[in-house]
């Protein structure tokens, strides 16, 4: 029996395949530009706290960012002043592969302004009711530039021994500090914040800034409209001078906007991430 296919069977088979393909749709299609495009990896969000606080002050923001798929690190700021704090946070940045959005509150703003200088992986800076110093400026100068800060009178000085044997002074926020620092949260929330705070070295106000990362890294800012730690006028002035890409003002916010307004804080951070990464 001749098993060699005839021209008729080949044509018939081809017609059957064509008919099946027509019903099922194309088996393959040319790859479009959208198919070939690799989805952007989300940046790591690094959060740096300021004085009278620890990393837990970011808990609400961390939870929101993680829910949106962001890897988030709430870094521990030593609060010893620029010579210690900036290299410490810089080393954290060096340990992260991929893009970073670096966020700071209060005195943490001075730290990231110095720590992010020259860091190519830092794509955006976000300042939440924070200092934004220029080279040579100190926090002491900036906090006195405009009237309205009430936080130092409710700070408690505590002497401590430095590694070289000299005596330093740590500043703690007293139990009477809610009106000056956290007026828009419950008393219970303030008590927890005050009990878990990390003090800062009073010399932190005296160290001149060595670099100004905001000059080369796009920056965003939040003004706390009822801030009695860093006056709102100072925040507006610093953000304006640095030509921030976006500034959000929360008229009712105390100094701790990331605790009292975590949703607004999170949206601003995400704006910076989406615009630069």
List keywords for this structure.
alpha/beta; about 20% strand; 11 helices; single chain; 3-stranded antiparallel β-sheet; Rossmann fold; about 280 residues; disordered N terminus
Number of helices: 11
Q: What percent strand?
A: 15-25%
**Biggest β-sheet strands, sense, barrel:** 6 strands, parallel
Q: Helix/strand/pairing class, anyone?
A: alpha/beta
- Span of the ends, CA to CA: 70 Å
How many domains make up the 3D coordinates? Answer: 1
What does this structure look like?
The chain has 277 residues and is an alpha/beta fold. It has one domain: Rossmann fold, CATH 3.40.50. It has eleven helices and nine strands. It has helices at 7-24, 33-36, 59-67, 82-94, 108-115, 139-143, 178-181, 187-196, 232-241, 257-260, 262-276, and strands at residues 44-48, 72-75, 100-106, 122-130, 155-161, 167-173, 200-201, 219-224, 246-250. The strands form two sheets. It has a six-stranded parallel β-sheet with strand order 2-1-3-4-8-9, with helices on both faces. Helix 3 crosses helix 11 (262-276). The protein is globular and about 50 Å long. It starts with 6 loop residues before the first helix and ends with a helix. Mean pLDDT is 90; it is low at 1-29.
């Amino acid at each position: 029996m001749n098993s060699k296919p005839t021209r008729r069977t080949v044509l018939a088979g081809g017609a059957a395949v064509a008919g099946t393909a027509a019903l099922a749709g194309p088996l393959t299609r040319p790859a479009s530009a959208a198919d070939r495009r690799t989805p952007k990896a989300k940046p790591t969000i690094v959060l740096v706290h300021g004085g009278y606080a620890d990393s837990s002050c970011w808990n609400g923001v961390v939870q929101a960012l993680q829910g949106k798929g962001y890897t988030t690190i709430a870094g521990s700021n030593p609060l010893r002043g620029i010579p210690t704090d900036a290299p410490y946070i810089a080393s954290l940045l060096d340990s992260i592969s991929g893009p970073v959005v670096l966020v700071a509150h209060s005195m943490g703003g001075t730290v990231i302004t110095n720590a992010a200088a020259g860091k190519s992986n830092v794509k955006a800076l976000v300042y939440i009711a924070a200092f934004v110093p220029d080279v040579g400026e100190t926090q002491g100068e900036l906090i006195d530039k405009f009237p309205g800060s009430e936080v130092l009178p409710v700070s408690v000085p505590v002497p401590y021994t430095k590694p070289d044997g000299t005596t330093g002074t740590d500043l703690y926020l007293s139990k009477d500090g809610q009106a000056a620092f956290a007026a828009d949260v419950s008393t219970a929330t303030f008590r927890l914040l005050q009990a878990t705070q990390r003090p800062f070295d009073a010399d932190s106000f005296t160290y001149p800034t060595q670099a100004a990362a905001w000059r080369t890294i796009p920056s965003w800012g939040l003004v706390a409209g009822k801030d009695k730690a860093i006056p709102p006028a100072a925040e507006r002035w610093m953000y304006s001078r640095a030509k921030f890409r976006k500034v959000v003002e929360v008229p009712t916010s105390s100094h701790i906007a990331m605790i009292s307004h975590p949703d607004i804080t999170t949206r601003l951070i995400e704006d910076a991430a989406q615009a630069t990464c």
